[in-house]
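Action item from last meeting closed. Structure (187 res):
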């Protein structure tokens, strides 16, 4: 499991930054299957033992780098309407996660064995949905259950992205969101 207690600033943060940069450089120039912890250590200018001590193995390191890319840079768009806010968020989420890069990041997170990377990745999605729900409540609109939104909208979309059984199109996503809100109104 990846070690998580990294202080902001200082030597640990600089090492993490260099290691992440090294991984990204190697991913841009090598096939993923060719990358090893010693290669990353050499490019980052650290010893392999530093990597093993902090990340444990390559899958944990790749997951940590993927999570860093998934970290939100801002709040979801505010359209003034809860259903439209959710739809906009889901469409952007699907666009990012169904891209080649997004699929690889998801594979890295899932391939890490479900440790802190998975918790963080899920946490980002929950955080955005909670923001949307809180916005709805602040506008005196009916809120929604974030857990049910994940179960009814996000989970099926992720399933289709991961297993590539069918493309989660914009129409499919809009239908999932519309059905969710219709269900909420009845419930």
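Sequence:
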């Amino acid at each position: 499991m990846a070690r998580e207690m990294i202080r902001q600033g200082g030597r640990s943060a600089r090492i993490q930054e260099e290691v992440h940069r090294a991984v990204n450089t190697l991913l841009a120039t090598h096939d993923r299957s060719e990358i090893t912890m010693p290669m990353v250590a050499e490019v980052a200018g650290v010893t392999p033992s530093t990597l093993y001590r902090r990340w444990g193995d390559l899958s944990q390191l790749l997951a940590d780098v993927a999570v860093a890319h998934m970290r939100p840079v801002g709040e979801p768009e505010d359209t003034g309407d809860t259903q439209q806010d959710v739809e906009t968020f889901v469409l952007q989420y699907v666009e990012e996660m169904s891209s080649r890069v997004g699929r690889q990041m998801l594979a890295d997170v899932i391939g890490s064995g479900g440790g802190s990377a998975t918790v963080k990745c899920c946490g980002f999605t929950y955080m955005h949905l909670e923001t949307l729900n809180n916005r709805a409540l602040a506008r005196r609109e009916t809120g929604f259950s974030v857990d049910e939104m994940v179960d009814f909208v996000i989970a099926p979309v992720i399933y289709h992205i991961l297993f590539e059984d069918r493309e989660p199109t914009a129409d499919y996503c809009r239908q999932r969101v519309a059905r969710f809100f219709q269900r909420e109104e009845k419930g």
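Note appended to the action item: The domain at 10-56 is CATH 1.10.10.60 (Arc Repressor Mutant, subunit A).
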